[in-house]
């Protein structure tokens, strides 16, 4: 005996198909947003732990009148923490979803949607970054040497910056000056 398919059955099938499609797209976006930047010469996403951000900002001596840039600010953990110490906080993020989260998390900061290599950072007093070794850090080191003024403090979490000598290092936090 054949089963009769009702309109309610068809609606449920469509809803299930839609739900599966949405979940698959979300998974693809998530995986792509982590690994695609690494394949195109950028860095994958890994958030800076809040306690490490706080420790690094204290080590660098962030002041209220400093201009701080977080290059590749992700979801804005460092921006939100830096806004407690500093009035002029700027983050640059190329990935739109993380940029949106950073905008909502760090309302007192200026969050720029764009490529950090195309952003002028010449007014920076402090530059924070958590990038991957070699490919990205070499380019960032070159950018910092070319654009940052003398005396700019640079904080790198987890990875040292090739070609620069830290003046302070505590565990996985490296602080440099230009």
Kindly describe this structure:
- There is one protein chain.
- With 178 residues, the protein is of the alpha/beta class.
- The protein folds into two domains: 1-40; 50-177, Vaccinia Virus protein VP39 (Rossmann fold, 3-Layer(aba) Sandwich).
- The protein is built from five helices and seven strands; from the N terminus they run H-H-E-H-E-H-E-E-H-E-E-E.
- It has helices spanning 7-39, 50-60, 77-82, 96-105, 135-147; strands at 67-71, 88-93, 110-113, 126-129, 153-157, 168-170, 173-177.
- It has a seven-stranded mixed β-sheet with strand order 3-2-1-4-5-7-6.
- The radius of gyration is 21 Å and the shape is elongated.
- The N and C termini lie far apart (81 Å).
- The model has no long low-confidence stretch (mean pLDDT 87).
